[in-house]
Amino acid sequence: MLGMPSKSTFAPLTNDTLRDRTAEVISEAIISGRIRPGERLNESQLARELRVSRAPVREALQRLQEQSLIVNVPRRGMFVVSLDDEDIQKINSLRVILEAEALRLTRRHLTPQGERRLAQLITAIESMHATPTSQAVRVDLEFHRAIWLLTGNEYLEKTLTSLTAPLFAHLVLNLLRSEKMRLVLDSHRPLYDFVRGRSDASAEDVMVAHLRVRYHDPVRFSSLVAPVQPTHADTV
Amino acid sequence: MLGMPSKSTFAPLTNDTLRDRTAEVISEAIISGRIRPGERLNESQLARELRVSRAPVREALQRLQEQSLIVNVPRRGMFVVSLDDEDIQKINSLRVILEAEALRLTRRHLTPQGERRLAQLITAIESMHATPTSQAVRVDLEFHRAIWLLTGNEYLEKTLTSLTAPLFAHLVLNLLRSEKMRLVLDSHRPLYDFVRGRSDASAEDVMVAHLRVRYHDPVRFSSLVAPVQPTHADTV
DNA sequence: TGACTGCCTGTTGTCGACAGACGACAATGT
DNA sequence: ACATTGTCGTCTGTCGACAACAGGCAGTCA
User: Fold this and answer.
1) What's the angle, vertex CA B66, arms to CA A93 and CA B86, rounded to 5?
2) CB-CB under 8 Å, A59 with B63
3) For residue B110, which phi and psi values (nearest 5 degrees)?
4) Which of A69, A92, A150, A161 has a 20 to 30 Å separation from A207 between CA atoms?
5) Whole-prediction pTM value?
6) Is B40 helix (H, G, I), strand (E, B) or coil?
7) What's the CATH architecture for A85-212?
8) Nearest-Cα residue of chain B relative to residue A92
9) So where are chain B's domains?
């Protein structure tokens, strides 16, 4: 052990590949709204702008496709995913379930560092005024991801990341009026309170309330609500 | 509309790309256990065996990586994912939650066709005797996927597919003794009964019972069970 | 005028090739 | 004998090129 340069003598000298960075950059561009839903992604153009060849771009696009950020039409191209209300409700009905689990797990073994990290993000969120929407959404996502990471279940983190990615891409484009943005930002504190054990509500209720600020009815397609009507009409 | 060859005058003349078929084939090979966990995937070799160039192989591997079927070590290669007990429990704790939702949604609007489809699969499952493990696991997966599809929520289907894919890959290798296989196969009927409304148990209980046949404790990392002990030991 | 047909252009899908990185192993020095 | 360094082969990461395809446009025929 002696003489071996123990950790952090040197910074780890980025080991990423072009494909990884390409995927990261494109993903960020979609979530931040710089590339709009429905837009076609031209591989050659992306490659030119990123100063790489098409190969890493195409490999990156495969990954983003699997993350539901883009959809592929064979021999036509890749298109930024475009969600309608039904898509959003379907995703949110799952998000409520998984985020509720994340809240419970995080509350169960919240460490002092974890609490500090969340406190820091809450402060950042609540001190935002008249900031660009894209930046607000970025911090929003960062707060949620912090909780996901604190669960200790990396599969939960991964699942929620790819499930909600298109939601955040959609959010940045539909949250332009700042008075609503204020409400959205402030709706994070109940989550913070929950994981600190300062809430008696169920995790599901906390999450539904949180999402209801953004979306009209986050649980319409969830089994949490009563069925509308069992309609087999088309089958008899 | 008139004169246009309405559906199924001709078979739709496969529109897939090589990469799609490549991903499908490799995925199947992993889930069926023909490629074992931890094994390194040689791109050139795969390309040779599939009679394609490396480009579609690499693009396919990116997708499978996003599905948690393989992991990438930059400049070292792709390796078939290898799960330890903790991974399995973490995945199962989420699987219970999502599959329970799937059961409820399917029960809510089960159509006669849907019921027939499931009945057919149950019959196939229960009539299997001394069949190869890989084939049993295939039907197992097919039954679950049928339920996922019947939920009407394509995001739930997609999420469960990529979440559980590595589980089935693991299952086929650890289910060799046939007396256990019989139990596993028979454990599907309660799910079938549930979606037909023939069960009073909660969807979670049904699912936990179903998974407990395979795995020792599917919910150890779930918030469904009481916390073991809130241990911040490493942080103070 | 309207619809059909055949080019034309831009883009994707696929390929083969090359450079650099990694691991294995031999060579060297102590 | 052991550790370190140098060398070699193999494989990945990336690139440029070509072929195949889709949609747009114009020309042709009724």
Assistant:
1) 80
2) no
3) -80, 125
4) A69
5) 0.90
6) strand
7) Up-down Bundle (1.20)
8) B155
9) 18-80, 85-212
Q: Report whether B173 contacts B92 (CB < 8 A).
A: no
Give Rg (Cα) of chain A.
20
Token output for B103:
């059961």
- Take residue A1 and report the two structure tokens written for it: 């052990």
Check if residue A55 sits with its Cβ under 7 angstroms from strand D.
yes
Q: Give me the residue from A66, A87, A108 closest to B227, CB to CB.
A: A108
In chain A, what residues touch B159 (CB-CB under 8 Å)? 94, 159, 163
Question: Tokens in use for B121?
Answer: 């699969």
Q: Classify domain A18-80 by CATH architecture.
A: Orthogonal Bundle (1.10)
The tens place of each residue's pLDDT in chain B, 236 residues long, gives 433 444 446 666 677 899 999 999 999 999 999 999 999 999 999 999 999 999 999 999 999 999 999 999 999 999 999 999 999 999 999 999 999 999 999 999 999 999 999 999 999 999 998 788 888 999 999 999 999 999 999 999 999 999 999 999 999 888 767 678 889 999 999 999 999 999 999 999 999 999 999 998 888 889 888 765 555 544 43
| Integer Cα distance of B120 and B79 in angstroms | 36
CA distances from A23 to A26, A67, A153, B22, B170 (A): 5, 11, 24, 21, 29
